[in-house]
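Example (one chain per record):
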Amino acid sequence: MSNRHLLRTVAMQTLYEWDFNGQHTEKIDEYIKHNMAEFAPGEEDSSYVDKTVKGIIKNSAEIDKLIEKTAPEWPIAQITIVDRNILRMGIYEMKYTKEIPPKVAINEAIEIAKTFGGRSSGRFVNGVLGTIYKNLTSSEP
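Predicted structure:
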């Protein structure tokens, strides 16, 4: 497993913990520290996880609106916690980071969904992120 893939899984697990426990932002550093030690022992640099998780939380209202607009039959509260946070991470990487190509962000999100989500999670994540990608690229100048 590449380091970036491993760090994405740690970010997803951290977001899951944050979301599951009531979205208490003041505990996010504690969650990151614990999850880095638990799931990526020996990995010294947690800057990707820190930047990604905090960026997603900061932009979560806008990201969640984009999810609800793209998948209107699935209100954000009805999407499983795993799928919801994988979508958040994929959207964050596509929309807010320039160093990660959108197709890489989508593929990584699909792989994480297949690993951690339910039977249809990969297809669901692919459909939502694919639609968002098309909308983002069609609205660019």
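Caption: The first helix runs from residue 3 to 20.
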